[in-house]
Task: inverse folding
């Protein structure tokens, strides 16, 4: 019994020591974190507002360029702009972000497709909005590479199947920070554009947030389902995320 009591006592001491280390770690981490009020002041500073306006202009200009493509009609855009503390992981991971604050801007524009998607895709390529997918040394689409207009046309020509009958990867168009996708209900890997997620309620805990869903016609807003019934095919143009200038367009360094 005495031996068992010594084991329990040592175990309790070890647990207490571990808890002390955890509490010290938490205190250290928390002491280095600026307050929400200070971070919100940084997120709404004149410099941040200037960068914010610049990024929003870039996003709207790209959406307008796609809107100008024959066969596409802009329906609505879901726009988000959020500043928050980056995730640091647990205290045991010891891999904190170098930033105390990061701001990201993203948008998803929805379009109705008039006519066949295979007629519209070459026009998107001709619009020169981006180099979609991998390119060779002369700026041509890499052969058989997913993410290009050439591949997307092959995908529809072969109805999404390789000669051996296997399913081809999705034909979405991809470029750094940009992605174009569309309805494909009758292919081996069906895809159906969903309604945009509603904006979260105000005061959801972020340092700074803007979110809006802006229809093209504010007097008679059109849903994705209504657009699909009218046009047959709905397309999305996603802007933002890693690789885009809207990714971490404002940062605040962590205090050492």
Result:
């Amino acid at each position: 019994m005495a031996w068992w009591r010594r084991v329990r006592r040592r175990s309790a001491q070890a647990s207490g020591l571990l808890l002390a280390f955890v509490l010290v770690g938490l205190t250290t981490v928390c002491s280095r974190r600026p307050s929400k009020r200070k971070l919100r002041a940084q997120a709404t500073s004149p410099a941040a507002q200037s960068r914010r306006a610049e990024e929003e202009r870039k996003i709207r200009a790209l959406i307008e360029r796609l809107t100008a493509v024959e066969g596409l009609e802009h329906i609505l855009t879901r726009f988000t702009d959020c500043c928050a503390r980056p995730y640091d992981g647990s205290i045991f991971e010891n891999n904190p972000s170098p930033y105390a604050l990061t701001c990201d801007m993203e948008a998803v524009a929805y379009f109705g497709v008039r006519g066949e998607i295979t007629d519209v895709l070459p026009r998107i390529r001709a619009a020169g909005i981006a180099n979609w997918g991998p390119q060779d040394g002369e700026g041509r689409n890499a052969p058989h590479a997913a993410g290009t207009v050439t591949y997307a046309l092959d995908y529809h020509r072969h109805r999404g199947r390789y000669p051996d009958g296997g399913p081809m990867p999705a034909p979405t168009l991809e470029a750094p920070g940009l992605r174009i996708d569309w309805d494909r209900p009758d292919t081996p890997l069906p895809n159906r554009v969903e309604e945009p997620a509603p904006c979260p309620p105000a005061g959801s805990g972020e340092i700074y947030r803007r979110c809006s869903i802006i229809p093209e016609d504010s007097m008679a807003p059109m849903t994705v389902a209504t657009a699909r019934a009218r046009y047959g095919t709905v397309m999305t143009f996603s802007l933002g995320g890693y690789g885009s200038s809207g990714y971490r367009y404002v940062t605040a360094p962590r205090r050492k």
Summary: The beta strands are 72-84, 99-113, 173-175, 178-182, 208-215, 233-239, 250-253. Confidence is low (pLDDT under 50) at residues 16-31. The two ends are 50 Å apart (CA to CA). The first strand starts at residue 72 and ends at 84.
